[in-house]
Amino acid sequence: MKTWSVAKLRKEMEKTLEPKRYEHTLGVAYTAATLAMVHGSDMEKALTAGMLHDCAKCLSHHKQVQICEKKRLKLSEMEASEDSPLIHAKAGSILAYEEYGVTDEDILNAISYHTTGRPHMSTLEKIIYIADYIEPGRKHAKRTTDASDTYLQSLAATRKLAYMDLDAALCRILSDTLTYLSQKGGKIDSMTMETYEYYRKTSDSGL
Ligand code: DGI
Ligand code: FE
Ligand code: FE
What we know:
With 207 residues, this protein is mostly helical. 64% of the residues lie in helices and 0% in strands. It contains 11 helices and no strands. Helix 2 packs antiparallel against helix 3, helix 6 (87-98) runs antiparallel to helix 7 (105-112) and helix 9 (149-162) runs antiparallel to helix 10 (166-183). The mean pLDDT is 91. The structure holds 2'-deoxyguanosine-5'-diphosphate and fe (iii) ion (2 copies). 2'-deoxyguanosine-5'-diphosphate binds next to helix 10. Residues 24, 28, 53-54, 132 line the site of one fe (iii) ion.
């Protein structure tokens, strides 16, 4: 299978994603690259995973389910449900392999787990998860409509933390996500909860 260059992936994403999603994708890819520089991880892999992390996001839910079913992928009840914000990560990982020639397991896992995280994440997985939350285009939260000063100060602190301590940043993002989900009455996927519990115990976040 032919490997796609980052430049070619960028052009492809520009064609297939909605303009806002494409802007976000660039933000994630380049933020991931800077995190990789600071934390001694592979920059090309960070760029590739960032470019592709939401590659299935603009497909219909039906199409996303089809992609997963074709691969006999077991979906959690939440992933399978209509309007699920989670399934695009799994479908995206399959597309990255099938359409864009990505064979690197670490990149594929970074795409698969960019929404819920998981315990024992690799450095690349953490980088993509965090870059998705802190990229510069997130003017106000991706997980809240709160654009208050308090929220923005908190996001600024999370951004700074990400360049110092990946696990602590991860824990902070998970905690904010769970707070947001419980405020809006959103159902919490067991993987999101497991990830939070794991990093709460193992990181130095003080949460
Ligand atoms: O695709 P993006 O919008 O860039 O961001 P994403 O893939 O991280 O997340 C999509 C949404 O999923 C985001 O608003 C947070 C939400 N999410 C994460 N874990 C859970 C969740 N939503 C629910 N209902 N339950 C979860 O456990
Ligand atoms: Fe996403
Ligand atoms: Fe995203």
